[in-house]
Amino acid sequence: MPQLNGGGGDDLGANDEMISFKDEGEQEEKISENVSAERDLDDLKSSLVNESENNSSSSDSEQAERRPQPRPDLDSYEKTRDYFSEALRRQQDGGFFKSPHYPGYPFLMIPDLTNPYLSNGALSPSARTYLQMKWPLLDVPGAAGLKDPRSPTPGHLSNKVPVVQHAHHVHPLTPLITYSNEHFSPGTPPSHLSPEILDPKTGIPRTPHPSELSPYYPLSPGAVGQIPHPLGWLVPQQGQHMYSIPPGGFRHPYPALAMNASMSSLVSSRFSPHMMPHHPHGMHQTGIPHPAIVSPAIKQEPNSHDHMSPSMHSRKSPGPAKKEEDKKPHIKKPLNAFMLYMKEMRAKVVAECTLKESAAINQILGRRWHSLSREEQAKYYELARKERQLHSQLYPGWSARDNYGKRKKRKRDNKPDSTPEDFSIRNKNQCVQYLPSEKMCDSPASSHGSMLDSPATPSAALASPAAPAATHSEQAQPLSLTTKPEGRLHHHFLTGKPSGSASSSSSSSSSSSSSSHPSISIPIGTSGSHSSHSAPIFSRPIPFSSLHHSMLSPPSPFHQAALHSHHALFQSQPLSLVTKSSD
DNA sequence: GAGCCTTTGAAGCAT
DNA sequence: ATGCTTCAAAGGCTC
């Protein structure tokens, strides 16, 4: 694999970024077409698992791939989406954005400064330090500019503003994913903000030189406020209160800093601008508001723990006289990879489907998640990792435990002593409930089950060419599942949940969630610990959908070996499958 | 209006 | 070290 990334400073899996995704995408398209007939067979098979990953679903993907123009039904969605979201989605669609030369850098170097910046637009020292430390490749504006906090010059902030352009226009050496200007469609920013600059020679949008942009930045707060936030989930979505933008707009040092999607998510998505002016309690000591901080009015319960960041304790509550504890802001947990993915893809799924219920949507998303390629998942893992890092930096004293008990506990009425059969039955019912007719729009075909399970260092897996090999090795060792206690293993097959990896929900007594997984799961790999630090590559059961699709339509040579292993596994474990599917 | 449902992942707690 | 529990998002649904 060509290594075009000379830098490689960041661990975003840049090494894999050189994959010619365009070629691969084309290949996948062909495969897609070739296997259309096989998809029919898929449909038949799918009935065994109460899944309907039918043509509809697959065609969705294919259509998405072929659609050159943004779908109208996504317009509204896209209106509220940030560039990052769009970039990711396109990348995943592989279609009208099929040339992510840098899958490891699927994220936009968007200057989102909602958070790392102080209210005056200056990057907070801590944030700046953090950014520079964590994102060596982060296109932080000129050192000169940022390093001189006193510099009021907008130019220093505008330097190297991420350019928005089609991925296929990205210079091969550009480690930044750019995106189409169309993402601004909802509210086309002032022309001077146009993320694209046509190259006079080629006519191709190119990344403007910082010098070309600097004069235009930073935007006035008002102007910025009129611009649709480039960072998707920052913008209110479907009534999402968390990311609403105040009427007056928010001070958004828009061009101040180029950042990748990781930053986008870290900063924008999680750092709601609306908190900046109104919620002092949501302001970190660094002056960085964080969207993870929820107004006490939204979520506050008396039994909150006292593990907040010291800065949090000192916050004054805007609310009326309430107990100090009640005034503590609720710092939400950083989103994990899947959550990020969900946020990114939910609207798309909703648009593609008639489904409205989140439960159903989530099921689809769960399967899509598994259908993602290693690289694609790794992007989210990396993003999540950075989000956690930033979160920990912003709230050093915060602990996940702080939020324990702040949410009503789930109903525990569900027969904790349920027998496996109970599980099975319930699963079936729930499958029917949530993935019946409408699942037609369901997941994509899981052309290849992605069994990447929250690698401790996703990027490492990406970066390492050996990763696939290791993967094969593990994948080719279904026996590893025997390392698990038989009981657990049993549970494994019956509930479709990994024993060790414990996607937690499985253990939930209510457990409906995991146990309701409609797919057939085959424990693969050494799922021992669910700890992210030691998460095996394949600790998660493979959705049957992914499995059988894998066998029918291997997506790419890259996965063929893995698929082969899958196949072998499938053949070697027929009983399990039969048992399950005959349920 | 509170909570459920559903998904995966991370983290904390208990053993 | 391992397993279980809780929470994170989302929005329709149920009670």
From TrEMBL:
What ranges does the record give for the region Disordered, renumbered to this chain? 1-77, 300-331, 394-534
CDD domains named in the record:
HMG-box_TCF7-like (cd21996)
Q: Which residues bind DNA?
A: 331-399
Q: Spell out the InterPro entries in the cross-references.
A: Catenin-bd_sf (IPR027397), CTNNB1-bd_N (IPR013558), HMG_box_dom (IPR009071), HMG_box_dom_sf (IPR036910), TCF/LEF (IPR024940)
Q: What is its main location?
A: nucleus
Cleaved signal peptide residues: none
* Residues passing through the membrane, by range: none
Q: Where is the composition biased (Gly residues)?
A: 1-11
Q: Where in the cell is it found?
A: Nucleus
User: Compositional bias (Low complexity) spans?
Assistant: 46-61, 454-473, 498-534
Any keyword DNA-binding?
Answer: yes
Q: Which UniProt keywords apply?
A: Activator, DNA-binding, Nucleus, Repressor, Transcription, Transcription regulation, Wnt signaling pathway
Q: Which residues form the HMG box domain?
A: 331-399
* Annotated Basic and acidic residues bias: 19-45, 63-77
Give coiled-coil spans as residue ranges.
none
List, as start-end ranges, the regions of compositional bias called Polar residues.
474-483
Instruction: Please provide, in alphabetical order, the Gene Ontology terms of the cellular component aspect for this entry.
Output: beta-catenin-TCF complex; chromatin
Tell me the Gene Ontology biological-process terms attached to this UniProt entry: canonical Wnt signaling pathway; cell proliferation in dorsal spinal cord; endothelial cell fate specification; generation of neurons; heart development; midbrain development; positive regulation of cell population proliferation; rostrocaudal neural tube patterning
Gene Ontology molecular function terms on file: DNA-binding transcription factor activity, RNA polymerase II-specific; RNA polymerase II cis-regulatory region sequence-specific DNA binding
**SMART domains referenced in this protein's UniProt entry, alphabetically:** HMG
> Known PANTHER family for this protein?
TRANSCRIPTION FACTOR 7 FAMILY MEMBER, TRANSCRIPTION FACTOR 7-LIKE 1
Regarding protein family, the annotation reads: Belongs to the TCF/LEF family.
- The identity of this protein, by name, is Transcription factor 7-like 1-B isoform X1
Its encoding gene is what? Answer: tcf7l1b
